Amino acid sequence: QVQLVESGGGLVQPGGSLTLSCAASANIFLFNVMAWYRQTPGKQRELVAAHPRVGSRIYADSVKGRFTIIRDTAKNTVYLQMNSLKPEDTAVYYCKAGQVVDTTPADSWGQGTQVTVSS
User: Fold this and answer.
1) What's the half-sphere exposure (Cβ side, CA atoms, 13 Å) at 61?
2) Positive or negative, the Cα torsion across 91, 109, 9, 79?
3) pLDDT, tens digit, for every residue of 85-117?
4) What is the Cα–Cα distance from 74 to 117, expressed in whole angstroms?
5) pLDDT per position as a tens digit, 39-53
6) How far apart are CA 86 and CA 117, in angstroms?
7) φ/ψ bin of 32: left (φ > 0), alpha (ψ from -120 to 50), beta (otherwise)
8) How far is 4 from 26, CA to CA, in rounded Å?
9) Are 34 and 97 contacting, i.e. CB atoms less than 8 angstroms apart?
10) Residue 73: how many CA atoms within 13 Å on its side-chain side?
């Protein structure tokens, strides 16, 4: 199973920007879908953005126009560029490698990175 390591989280003021990175231990070309999810206490993990190997990128309505997912096969890394951050973007962000957008038991997950948007 592939190992995924997220980085780039932290504290940022509303309106600010952050870029998260997800470094994979295997060739991400093997995975049809690389994605970012997020989770807050007491809530289910939700899809933020997905980058299929073929086809259009998918974004949650709440982040469209503000977040961009980038899949760099040469570096085996997936990025999440986050702009115009809002307090409601505060969450633990997780990277996922899988074969479909929906979560399955076969998916690989990173350990998560905390993003806090606060003044």
Assistant:
1) 0
2) negative
3) 999 999 999 999 999 999 999 999 999 999 999
4) 31
5) 999 999 999 999 999
6) 6
7) alpha
8) 9
9) yes
10) 9
